[in-house]
Design goal:
two-stranded parallel sheet; 2 domains; 302 residues; mainly alpha; 8 strands; two-stranded antiparallel sheet
Length: 302
């Protein structure tokens, strides 16, 4: 990912000793709106980021237009943050930002290629990891009573539901008191479960969900209806993550650590929306390669 760099060269060359600099909460004020064009020209600024707290704030249209006509790039704050961090700023996002922005393009060919890649990787995964899956199944049965596989209803594409498959990593009665997010040192997790969670092997059966077309290899992680209904009321745009198939791994999973709270859900949504906006096969391959690295290093699991 390219990180934008903005250089302001040698302010001392044009600021003489008589000019006063005011400090307001840290930033240095070097002029007002009427001086934007002249300041940019003197300091050879090549990029301006406009980040207003309120959209109703008065924009210095003439000054910004003058800069633009001189070849200086002018970016909106939300778009700049998106490019810099690889996520959308949900808190300052407006529906118009999504409606009129570039991205969210899904061609028929891209969708078919993505589905083809999902089928190929799922079949390859079943063949390669079947022996390992057999060992995990035996270990689960030997340690504790209960089924080898754990089925859990999750929300998928367009708000539909499906049964997500996982190797059981908790006691059979783990949620007898209702759904609860997993936490560090969760006592409900078995010894075998702790190992397979660390190595992400508990997710292996989800290749069956991918083959059935309920999931993709890459996409937003599917969540339970109980949490989805709660999060949709609290977090703007949360339902938009269901406009694509959920994934075994995703952009949020490689750039944000494991989350188990409403605040974590908000942070992950920023990455999920960025993925949905820029979704492509090269991006999927990038996510898969980074996921392999994370699994090999055993990072981020609970």
């Amino acid at each position: 990912m390219k990180i934008a760099k903005i250089f302001v060269k040698s302010l001392d060359l044009w600021l003489n000793k008589e000019e006063k600099l005011k400090k307001v909460s840290g930033p240095i004020i070097i002029g007002d709106f009427d001086q934007i064009s002249s300041i940019c020209q003197k300091t050879r600024v090549d990029r301006i980021v406009v980040a207003l707290d309120e959209r109703r704030g008065k924009l210095p249209i003439e000054q910004l237009l003058a800069c633009r006509l001189k070849g200086i790039r002018v970016d909106e704050g939300v778009a700049f943050t998106e490019e810099l961090y690889g996520r959308l700023s949900v808190g300052s996002l407006y529906p118009s930002s999504l409606i009129f922005s570039d991205g969210f393009r899904r061609s028929f060919i891209t969708e078919k290629l993505k589905r083809g890649m999902d089928i190929f990787l799922s079949l390859a995964g079943l063949i390669l990891f079947s022996p390992l899956g057999l060992v995990v199944s035996i270990a689960i049965k030997l340690e504790s009573e209960g089924p080898v596989f754990y089925r859990q209803e999750r929300v998928g594409e367009n708000g539909g539901t499906f049964d997500l498959l996982k190797f059981r990593s908790m006691r059979a009665d783990a949620e007898e008191n209702g759904p609860v997010w997993a936490s560090n040192g969760d006592k409900r997790i078995t010894r075998v479960g702790r190992v397979i969670r660390k190595l992400r092997m508990d997710e292996m059966p989800q290749v069956i969900n991918v083959l059935k077309g309920e999931m993709s290899f890459v996409g937003p992680r599917p969540e339970r209806r109980f949490f989805v209904e709660k999060l949709e009321k609290e977090i703007p745009f949360y339902s938009y993550r269901h406009t694509v198939k959920p994934g075994i791994t995703g952009w949020a999973q490689i750039y944000y650590p494991y989350g188990a709270s409403q605040q974590d859900a908000l942070e992950k949504l920023k990455y999920d929306l960025y993925y949905i906006k820029h979704m492509s096969l090269p991006m999927d391959l990038q996510v898969i390669l980074k996921t392999v690295k994370i699994v090999l290093l055993a990072r981020g699991a609970r």
